[in-house]
Amino acid sequence: MTCGFQMPALFILIALSFPVLIHGWGVDGHYIVCKIAQDRLSTAASDAVNDLLPSYANNNLSSLCSWADHVKFRYRWSSPLHYINTPDNLCNYNYQRDCKDDNGVAGRCVSGAITNYTDQLLTYKNSSSGSQYNLTEALLFLAHFVGDIHQPLHVGFTSDEGGNTIEVHWYTRKANLHHVWDDSIIQTAEENFYNTSVEEFADTIKKNITGEWSEKVTKWETCSKNETICPDVYASESITAACDWAYKGVTEGSTLEDEYFHSRVPVVNLSA
Ligand SMILES: *[C@@H]1O[C@H](CO)[C@@H](O)[C@H](O)[C@H]1NC(C)=O
Ligand SMILES: *[C@@H]1O[C@H](CO)[C@@H](O)[C@H](O)[C@H]1NC(C)=O
Ligand SMILES: *[C@@H]1O[C@H](CO)[C@@H](O)[C@H](O)[C@H]1NC(C)=O
Ligand SMILES: *[C@@H]1O[C@H](CO)[C@@H](O)[C@H](O)[C@H]1NC(C)=O
Ligand SMILES: *[C@@H]1O[C@H](CO)[C@@H](O)[C@H](O)[C@H]1NC(C)=O
Ligand SMILES: *[C@@H]1O[C@H](CO)[C@@H](O)[C@H](O)[C@H]1NC(C)=O
Ligand SMILES: *[C@@H]1O[C@H](CO)[C@@H](O)[C@H](O)[C@H]1NC(C)=O
């Protein structure tokens, strides 16, 4: 197995491990995905990651896992690559129909981007001959987008922009539904449920991957081991989870608290 291939495989594996919780996909969610992924890399893949990371990252992939969010404005072209809009209330995803940007340009969605940056990283082994791509950026985009595609509301309905326009209360605070899934659930889990720091939280999840969940993890690896990444499968899983869990029972102005939180967090423990 080449290291170029194994890197994407691992991110996908890791992100897949958390049907709901890791979805955090605010800073903490991305941090956790990248930390666990980097800890599990083979030596060859790890060397490649260290080689591609800028020196100021000190070989720490997590520290740059939100880079793609930070460059959204500098690289305006990249902002449609973080999500997929699907038709309202259909609760399914279709690449041909949905993977495009607002101008209708095909492939410009998070699924297309994962394929794009995986393909670029596959040229890593040839990079001594000079890759035509910036593989540092490819790595940082891929690590981030694999997190995003597993956040159910990053594959959401068009008219509410994946929950962004649905204003709710998360306990006593105002938030929109998208933000609840990007950040609030995971933060509440860390603070109130597991009462732990993001580092410890990542370690707990890591232990579950090698222990309790190892059988399922092997199954998740299959898609990627076949040298086939399957972002469209992840996108379909996300919109299903969005309908079954994220949108369900929520309307404009809803107050979401313990009942919503407790019923969504366990989905973490592997519903998929
Ligand atoms: C990696 O970076 C993150 C975020 O900047 C930091 O919290 C963490 O302590 C760093 N890890 C190591 C091993 O330096
Ligand atoms: C693929 O990557 C290149 C280089 O970053 C970028 O210009 C292009 O927009 C990307 N396309 C997609 C669909 O991700
Ligand atoms: C690697 O580079 C060589 C020569 O530049 C080219 O023939 C080959 O197709 C490349 N391999 C891959 C996997 O891109
Ligand atoms: C690749 O991208 C990184 C991050 O944007 C940047 O710092 C670096 O200068 C780029 N490398 C080249 C060769 O352009
Ligand atoms: C969380 O843990 C800290 C120490 O690790 C402790 O001081 C605090 O009381 C705990 N909070 C709750 C709500 O259990
Ligand atoms: C790890 O697995 C145990 C047992 O299924 C579960 O109780 C715990 O919540 C899991 N931890 C995390 C962070 O998912
Ligand atoms: C997975 O690999 C097997 C054996 O190499 C092959 O027959 C099958 O077509 C592959 N599946 C996909 C989706 O590529």
UniProtKB/TrEMBL annotation:
Known EC number: 3.1.30.1
UniProt keyword Hydrolase present: yes
Keyword Transcription regulation applies: no
Catalytic activity: Endonucleolytic cleavage to 5'-phosphomononucleotide and 5'-phosphooligonucleotide end-products
EC supergroup of this enzyme: hydrolase
Signal peptide: 1-24
SUPFAM superfamilies attached to this UniProt entry: Phospholipase C/P1 nuclease
Gene3D superfamilies, per database record: P1 Nuclease
Family affiliation: Belongs to the nuclease type I family.
Record-given protein name: Aspergillus nuclease S1
Taxon lineage: Eukaryota, Viridiplantae, Streptophyta, Embryophyta, Tracheophyta
